Amino acid sequence: MTDRYAVIGNPVHHSKSPWIHAAFAAQTGQDLSYEAVLGELDGFEGQVLAMARGGVRGLNVTLPFKERALALADRVSDRARLAGAANTLLFAAGGVSADNTDGIGLMRDLQQRLHVQLAGRRLLVIGAGGAVRGILGPLIAAAPAGIDLHNRTLERARGLAEAFSGVAGAVTLAALGAGHLARAEPYDLVINGTSASLAGELPQIPSSVFRPGAVAYDLAYRLDGPTPFLTQAQAAGAGVVADGLGMLVEQAAEAFLLWRGVRPETAPVLQALRCRAAG
Fold it and tell me: Is the pLDDT assigned to residue 93 strictly greater than 90?
């Protein structure tokens, strides 16, 4: 019997997850189907539970539902609990299990594919939503010198810094408003965790945040060219720019492992996605 899985978000039409998981299933010989489902902004919780009752085995969860997904779970992994958000749900007889694979997906892409060194570096993370919550723990564990957090609502950035202060250790966490950000020293790595790129917009940051040769990473992705954030970073002198397609594939592989007990190879799937985009 074919097992059913899906990704749920709003918007979700742009998602490459169905193609990615179909490729993983073909590669590993797994019998499953996977679809994209538009999440109901006012009825997300009931929609998810109805899908579980209807036989769906698991869900990937994307914007803007990651924090609401966590609240549905009967069992929560340590990394999802730390993040306060879930991007992976597993439905079984014992209830709903929640995990967060965003952080490990980002770290594998940064460290193994892009060979970015984080220890002792200065990091800027833009945004304060569920996607950012999912990556902060692993970023802290990589021992950068400090992580500055910027969000257009400063209180949300401050709340995020406070939420992760207990695990920060020697890593300095600070929330910066627009004025302080304009005067800050340039950063070694700048991560855009806002949804601005999905709308073809720029996050409101000055180009001075990028040191010459810096790494710029956008958690969002576009297959028709660089995101506005990455275009800004290149013009400002960033040396390495990368979108979130690699992270998407890596976090999907971790979810696939949780669901199916086998880890697919990610490099050929990422390469195939890029080739499809190139025509």
Answer: no
Q: What count of residues does the chain have?
A: 279
Domain 3-100+249-277 matches domain 103-243 at the CATH topology level: yes
Per the annotation, the verdict on 66 as an active-site residue is yes
Strand ranges of the sheet holding 172-176, from the earlier edge strand across to the other edge: 172-176, 146-150, 122-126, 187-192, 210-218, 240-242
Residue 220 · residue 231 · CB < 8 Å: no
Paired with 126 in beta bridges are 150, 192
Fold category of 3-100+249-277 in CATH: Rossmann fold (3.40.50)
108-132 tens-digit pLDDT: 999 999 999 999 999 999 999 888 9
Longest Cα pair distance anywhere in the chain, in angstroms?
A: 59
- Structural domain spans, the chain: 3-100+249-277, 103-243
16, 21, 57, 66: the catalytic one is 66
What pTM was computed for the model?
0.93
Distances (CA, A) of 98 to 36, 77, 269, 272, 275: 19, 6, 25, 29, 33
Tell me whether strands 210-218 and 88-92 are parallel, antiparallel or unpaired.
unpaired
| The domain defined by 103-243 carries CATH number 3.40.50.1360 | no
* Interatomic CA distance for residues 241 and 208, integer angstroms: 16
Interior angle at CA 69, CA 63 and CA 74, nearest 5: 165
Are the beta carbons of 43 and 64 closer than 8 angstroms? no
